[in-house]
Amino acid sequence: MDSLWAFIGTKLADFLTFTGFACGYYGNYIMILVGFIFLRLAIKRDFEPLLLVPIGFGIILGNIPFKAIGLEIGLYEDNSVLNFFYSGVVNGWYPPLIFLGIGALTDFTALLSNPKLLLVGGAAQFGIFAAYMLALAMGFEPNQAAGIAIIGGADGPTAIFLSSKLAPNLMGAIAVCAYSYMALVPLIQPPLMRLLTNPKERTIRMKPGRHVSQTERILFPIMGLLMTTFLVPSGLPLLGMLFFGNLLKESTKTTRLAKTASTSLNDIVVILLGLTVGCSTQASEFLTTKTLLIFLIGALSFIVATASGIIFVKLMNVFLPEGRKINPLIGNAGVSAVPMSARISNQVGQEYDKSNFLLMHAMGPNVAGVIGSALAAGVLLGFLN
Amino acid sequence: MRRFLTLTVSILLGLSAQHAWGQGNEHFKISEVLVENTTGLTDEYGDRGAWIEITNTSWSSINLGGCYLTDNPAVLDETLTAAQRISMMSPIAIGDPQTKVSPRQQIVFFADGKTNLGTLHLNFVLQGGRSNFIAFYDGNGETLLDSVTVPPTLGKDQSWACFYDESKNRRTWKACSFDEITPKAANDNFHKKGDKVGEFKEKDPYGVALSLMAMGIVFGSILLLFIVFVLFSKISDAYDIYRHGPRNHAASPADAATMAAISLDLSENDATWVAIGLALHEYSSSQAHDPESGIITIRRQGGNRWNDHGRELQERTLKQ
Question: How far apart are CA A158 and CA A171, in angstroms?
């Protein structure tokens, strides 16, 4: 009988060593707290819930401590279910699929009706390269600096795609940083927009865009693909899927495919991507000085990108005739956080003139920003891979 | 404008006339060769033969299927056509997962003349006691990706390996003894500075050059798109006027509906916005509107979930 109790005691003691309480350290608890903050921001404050709920829950999931004895349960353990899901991130499958969905969702009419707004989307990419220089100055390797810099494009899938190729060990921090700043667009951009514009500029009314024919809408993804990928073939996975998705939408003959790409497929990928990116932030990998630096550089690059877009619009206005000037409040939308930053343009614009609707105008630079950041990722990949 | 367009088109055509690259194949380098293999690496049948190691120097997986390897120096003759050159070389089969090389990893081909043994066997044989030339060509049969000449002085089980010589700042080759040969593994110092990242780190420590180049390319691409679509819109407008006469340039109902739909996220508690969004949607989809251009009507309707909000609103007309 004694031996039975001893056996039970030994096994229970052994079991206790397997629990999260025995295996965890303070880093796990900090990260679980971070996960809760993400969930709170998403659920209570409505900050990008579709992204932050999977990421926040993933952070908690990835930081449940366990004893690594080959149970094949952890994200980084071969053959585990999470590892299988994570392979879509590591091998860069998810970002192009997300781009397919974005393409199928996005209406490029606003851009086509006023093509000069494309340039605003291009100018805002300066944030990426400012961040690249900053990251180099802080001691990161060129490939790591490029992975970090793409945060300035405010495009989560692009950030994941590029960092998985150039800086796989920093991907978790880069992805979480990119999505965090995308969610914080409503907090970061409005003060900058007010700072860089004067009351007169904020009330500029823009003329409605020209009518865009069906033929133009169909030709845009085809021409866009040819123009961009012939120049930057390394952007092919992202740009190819973006324009393909848009062609599915605009052709009007493949509505079912466009609907699937923009709804079910997109949702599935977002769930897997968000969850596994969140999981990848295991405390031992994530709680480092490098992560803090990445968040700092990310914030600065986001600020520079926003400012570049606004200043570029102001510069364009110097050359544009009266009556065709652009409201600089849409310059912030040059970053590719679609459609959050366009909404912010509209929101801030209406603070100064309730009847001035900037939303459709801001969608132009906003979707141009998507193309711009994918191009920037392709260029960086081409130079550094 | 015409000059600019002519220049742009000329540059694009000029670029397209250049030799086509297989995607990423330029990242493959011959990294090590062993001619007389008596005690070392065996193939899948346990046989030993001369081998050629190729390294993927990039950070992406690339498949070198479709490329060519040869020991025939005659392929360097620039007067040869691609087809003539290809006929002198050993092709690497397309579609075999074995030829996919992971980032910074190596693949070994056996130069034993036994192509019937599989994809990793070449149709030529390297022989000791003489110099052996090896060339590695891209799939177009024109682009030389890498080449090396293995000296005749190499002994049995000695390899000819590539590494990066920092003092000379270039790739160089040296003979490695049996203990130093590394088939299917990176040679010492092979990647140290001979890659793009190292080059940028050395030549562009502050990132100014890369930023200027990359921003220029991004902005240039977008500028090109801008020019194309400005021209296209002008042609389209002209055609539209030709077909249908002058058009009212007010925002289209679809644009307005999109605007309202996106705005709903901003004003989710505002019943007015909801009703306007719904009305705009119906305007663009179900033709429930007045026939006048630029005018929509919000009507009281039954059978939809916004009915309660609809009842609160009087029929009204919005003029854009």
Answer: 11
Q: Do A129 and B205 touch (CB under 8 A)?
A: no
pLDDT given at position A244: 95
Longest dimension (CA), chain B: 99
Nearest to B201 among A142, A224, A379 (CB): A142
Strand-pairing partners, residue B172, are B163
Q: Which residues contact A74 (CB under 8 A, 6 or more apart)?
A: A66, A68, A80, A82, A83
Q: How far is Cα A276 from Cα A293, in angstroms, rounded to an integer?
A: 22
Instruction: State yes or no: cis peptide before A339, omega within 30 of 0.
Output: yes
Number of other residues whose CB lies within 10 A of the CB of residue B128? 16
* CB–CB contact A119 B23 (8 Å): no
**ipTM, 2 dp:** 0.85
Strand boundaries in B151-247, DSSP class E: 159-165, 170-176
Range with lowest mean pLDDT among A27-31, A60-64, B272-276:
B272-276
3-state SS, residue B82: helix
Backbone dihedral angles phi then psi of residue B267, each to the nearest 5 degrees: -125, 45
The reply to whether A161 touches chain B by the CB within 8 Å rule is no
Q: Are A364 and A330 in contact (CB under 8 A)?
A: yes
CB contact under 8 A, B233 and A215: no
| Distance, CA of A29 to CA of A35 (rounded, Å) | 10
DSSP-based three-state secondary structure for A216: helix
A-facing residues of B in 183-222 (CB < 8 A) are: 196-197, 200-201, 204-208, 210-211, 213-215, 217-222
The CATH number of the domain covering residues in B23-203: 2.60.40.1260
Answer yes or no: are the C-beta atoms of A183 and A38 closer than 8 Å: no
**A226-242 per-position pLDDT tens digit:** 988 888 888 888 999 99
Reported for A261-264, long-range contacts at CB under 8 A and 24+ positions apart, including other chains, are A261/A100, A261/A101, A261/A103, A261/A104, A262/A101, A262/A104, A262/A105
Domain coordinates of chain A in residue numbers? 75-384
- Give the chain A residue whose CA is nearest to the CA of B230: A115
Residues of A in contact with B265 (CB under 8 A): 343
Return the pLDDT at B197: 78
Query: Distances in Å between the alpha carbon of B231 and those of A208, A215, A216, B226, B228?
Result: 19, 14, 11, 9, 5
Q: Which of A121, A28, A101, A104 is nearest to A66 (CA)?
A: A28
- Between chains, do A371 and B225 touch, taking CB under 8 Å as contact? yes
Cα-Cα-Cα-Cα torsion B197, B199, B200, B206, nearest 10 degrees, comes to 130
Question: For residue A279, what are its two tokens?
Answer: 């999981």
pLDDT above 50 for B268: no
Q: Chain A residues with CB inside 8 Å of B221's CB?
A: 122, 227-228, 231-232, 375
pTM for this entry: 0.65
Q: What is the secondary structure of A165-208 as a DSSP string?
A: HH-GGGHHHHHHHHHHHHHTHHHHHHHHHHHH--HHHHTPPPPP
